[in-house]
Specification:
200 residues; alpha+beta; Lipocalin; two-stranded antiparallel ribbon; 20% helix
Length: 200
């Protein structure tokens, strides 16, 4: 083997290697994390051990990087949702993207969602009533063919109604947290509903 800095390797199990890894990882806020290490003239087993340790550490950091927006009030402690978790329950909208719902701005008509038999969904959007057929596809939730009444809505009511119907009409990630809040999340919207079943 050739010499490096006039220092020969003594055996085939001992060699010179320099490994440098530099990764730019976007971390919020814009942060640069640089990983680098240098191994010189060490036994092959030690080099492999260091490589395995580096890769393991790197995988942990990458898994911690989020892939979407986070909002106050969202929870990581969620469980898989089944039809039984949804049917015969009623939820009222608690917040949108972490902002609490102001009942006064909606004339006390708080948006709500209710799931009945055969996953039939109905509720109030803050202005109009709506209904449709809800469906679960793994961790995704959608209300197919959402239909609603056509009452005139004030600007504030109209904005929330359009947002709700848009989320309901597309697949969103669904979860229920430890407090039994229903959470619907798309790429840019987070809706949190508080469980509030009707008293019979």
């Amino acid at each position: 083997m050739r010499q490096v800095n006039n220092y020969p390797c003594k055996s085939k199990n001992e060699f010179i290697v320099v490994v440098t890894a530099a990764l730019s990882i976007p971390v919020k806020p814009a942060t640069l994390i640089i990983f680098s290490f240098s191994v010189q003239r060490v036994p092959k087993k030690i080099i492999l051990s260091k490589l395995v340790t580096f890769i393991f550490f790197l995988s942990i950091v990458l898994s911690a990087c989020g892939t979407g927006p986070t909002f106050p009030g969202s929870s990581d402690q969620a469980v898989t949702v089944t039809q039984a978790d949804l049917q015969h329950h009623r939820w009222v909208l608690e917040s949108i993207n972490g902002t609490k719902i102001d009942a006064a701005k909606l004339d006390n008509q708080i948006p709500e969602l209710e799931i009945g038999e055969q996953m039939m969904a109905s509720g109030h959007s803050g202005c109009n009533r709506f209904h449709g057929k809800a469906a679960l596809r793994e961790d995704r939730f959608i209300i197919d063919r959402v239909a609603s009444t056509r009452m005139f809505c004030r600007p504030g009511q109209n904005d929330i109604e359009l947002l709700l119907l848009q989320v309901f009409g597309q697949e969103s990630r669904i979860s229920i947290d430890a407090d039994k809040n229903l959470i619907l999340k798309t790429d840019d919207t987070l809706l949190i509903f508080r469980l509030q079943d009707r008293v019979e």
